[in-house]
Design a protein that fits this description.
Number of helices: 4
Largest sheet: 4 strands, antiparallel
Shape: rod-shaped
Order of helices and strands: EEEEHHHH
Strand order of the largest sheet: 1-2-3-4
Structural class: alpha+beta
Distance between the termini: 84 Å
Radius of gyration: 26 Å
């Protein structure tokens, strides 16, 4: 009687998200995988054995990393938050039908503290006020 037995490693997906891929040099989607060793009989995994650990697989290039790469901060939340805050402030300021120059000045100062560039801020402002008002507010806020 012939018995074929052995071990294999299988993975299961624990989660996903966005991380900095060193192979591609940018932010990419990933899968968080758990690797586990299994006892096999006739190449069929039957008994789960030791958990070997977690790993991160880049969904774009397929390179696998240790799960510690997730400790490196990404830019996505940092880039989106200041713009959302400025847009919310503009929306609130315009709720009465018009945005005053004092309100625009306050929003420009807030944007400066949040680190938005003049071009980015100008694009957001001209949705609510005229281009001339946006440029004047940015000059007053010393962003030009």
């Amino acid at each position: 009687m012939l018995l074929l037995f052995g071990w294999t490693t299988r993975t299961k997906t624990l989660g996903s998200g966005s991380f900095y891929c060193r192979n591609e040099g940018g932010e990419r989607p990933y899968l968080l995988l758990q690797a586990r060793r299994w006892f096999t009989l006739f190449f069929i995994p039957l008994i789960p054995l030791k958990v070997l650990g977690d790993l991160v697989q880049c969904s774009s290039c397929g390179v696998q990393y240790d799960s510690k790469v997730l400790d490196v901060p990404t830019n996505a939340p940092v880039q989106d938050e200041p713009e959302a805050m400025v847009r919310a402030a503009l929306s609130d300021a315009g709720s009465d039908g018009a945005v005053s120059s004092e309100e625009v000045d306050l929003i420009v100062r807030m944007a400066i503290e949040l680190g938005l560039s003049a071009a980015h801020l100008r694009g957001i402002l001209i949705e609510q006020v005229s281009l001339d008002e946006a440029n004047e507010a940015i000059k007053r806020g010393s962003l030009a």
